[in-house]
Specification:
DNA Cyclobutane Dipyrimidine Photolyase, subunit A, domain 3; Serine Threonine Protein Phosphatase 5, Tetratricopeptide repeat; mainly alpha; 3 domains; three-stranded parallel sheet
Length: 436
């Protein structure tokens, strides 16, 4: 009798051995997407109820291949991994060289939003039409009575293979060309910008990453999109996404406990409850509204607005990680620990990123339209209208001056902080700040 193939995560945390015994044959599973699910599979395999574990079809590179590439590395550079991925899967390559002669087109993909624009001049993202299945799922969730956050609304993301293929074609045809230059930009009236919104079907396993990057590559080779846009998308999917997946397993279960900056402040109620209306700062309020209303914001809002705020205020990294994992529609057990513990909060002490990602209000002002009508002034660090990101940045630098002074990428910030004539007043203000 042939074993039955299922996804490991479909087994669920509360599967009893008797349920699998009733199947009448051992099952074959794909690699789980969390340590908890992996522990369950190991137990069921020891009991003879799981016959084999196959590489996950949700990623291009298997865990065994990553282990071979990683060797005895203790620290990792995404650029090294990304180039290896491009070469291994022959994506945007001309023989042994990258298409266009450059591996990295980040310099062309950091444009601020167009001046005076309220939205990008691109066609909106594809969205699905809800059907009876959506209605039944919504009714089942309501009946279950599980605690939830955010607001219910129409489904915005593809969740089947057919929907995902449609969303991918729409993105490549109508939005990819604008994605590259403005992938780091934020506009208050354009929540999706030119992003693909494909993280949900990719993380659900209904769209293969190589299908996504090959579609972008073909569009470039056909002359439909510039190389910078195609490469920027490929970097996110074949580079960063795969990198995060493999580092989740590489760093192990103890990674969630890392707290190199000794951040212990609990998440405030207004944050945990997604009470965006309690927030004054335009950038932070808009980001929280995105999580509340859609369960999604793009990567700059996650890193440089939400993550930057949490880093400056010293929110407990594990609690913050769990918040990201549960509040975002593309949050999975493997996604958030490297992104939050490593990239956003620098709680791993540099295992993943060479420097903390903190900035003052000047960055938000340059890359968004949030500051021009905000109650806070990004140029000010002192006073009632002092930007909490600008003042908070200098308070954060002061708090971690010894660490930052020893890093050549952040030592200049410490020197600048020590030259501030009003530093003591800024520190007093930030220690007492209640309004954001």
């Amino acid at each position: 009798m042939q074993p039955l193939l299922v996804f490991a995560d479909q087994l669920g945390r509360h599967v009893h051995s008797t349920a699998l015994e009733q199947v009448g044959r051992p099952v074959v599973v794909h690699e789980p997407t969390s340590h908890a699910a992996a522990d369950l599979v190991d137990r069921l395999r020891r009991d003879g109820l799981v016959a084999d574990v196959l590489p996950t079809p949700t990623f291009a590179l298997s865990r065994a291949e990553f282990t071979q590439w990683a060797g005895d590395r203790e620290t990792f550079r995404m650029e090294d991994f990304y180039r290896a991925q491009r070469t291994r899967f022959d994506v945007l390559m001309d023989g042994e060289q990258p298409v266009g002669g450059k591996w990295n087109h980040d310099h062309d993909n950091r444009e601020p939003p167009p001046k005076g624009a309220r939205t990008l001049d691109v066609r909106g993202p594809w969205t699905p039409t809800e059907d009876d299945i959506d209605s039944r799922v919504r009714a089942d969730l309501d009946a279950a009575g599980h605690p939830t956050v955010g607001q219910d609304g129409p489904r915005l993301f593809a969740v089947t293979h057919t929907e995902a293929r449609t969303a991918l074609r729409h993105f490549v045809r109508h939005r990819l060309a604008a994605f590259g230059p403005y992938e780091d930009a934020v506009l208050g009236d354009d929540w999706a910008m030119a992003h693909s919104l494909l993280s949900v079907p990719l993380n659900m396993g209904v769209l293969h990453p190589l299908d996504a990057v090959h579609a972008a590559e073909q569009a470039h080779r056909a002359g439909a999109v510039p190389i910078a846009a195609a490469e920027g998308f490929v970097r996110q999917v074949l580079g960063w996404r795969e990198y995060v997946w493999h580092l989740y397993w590489r760093f192990g279960k103890g990674y969630l406990r890392r707290n190199a900056l000794r951040a212990h402040a609990p998440l405030p109620d207004w944050w945990a409850d997604l009470d965006a209306d309690a927030v004054t700062a335009n950038c932070l309020r808009t980001a929280l509204q995105g999580v509340r209303d859609r369960g999604w914001t793009h990567h700059i809002q996650r890193l440089m607005i939400l993550g930057n705020h949490a880093l400056q205020r010293g929110y407990q990294p594990r609690e913050l990680t769990e918040w990201f994992a549960t509040a975002f529609v593309d949050g999975y057990g493997w996604v958030m620990p490297p992104n939050v513990i490593g990239m956003s909060q620098h709680a791993d002490g540099g295992m993943m990123a060479t420097k903390p990602y903190s900035s003052g209000g000047a960055y938000v002002n340059r890359m968004s339209d949030h500051c021009h009508d905000c109650a806070f002034d990004p140029r000010k660090r002192l006073g009632d209208d002092a930007c909490p990101y600008t003042a908070g940045y200098w308070a954060w630098v002061h708090r971690h001056a010894d660490l930052l002074a020893g890093n050549h990428r952040t030592a200049r910030a410490v020197s600048a902080m020590r030259r501030l004539a009003d530093l003591d007043a800024v520190l007093d203000q930030e220690s007492a700040r209640e309004r954001f």
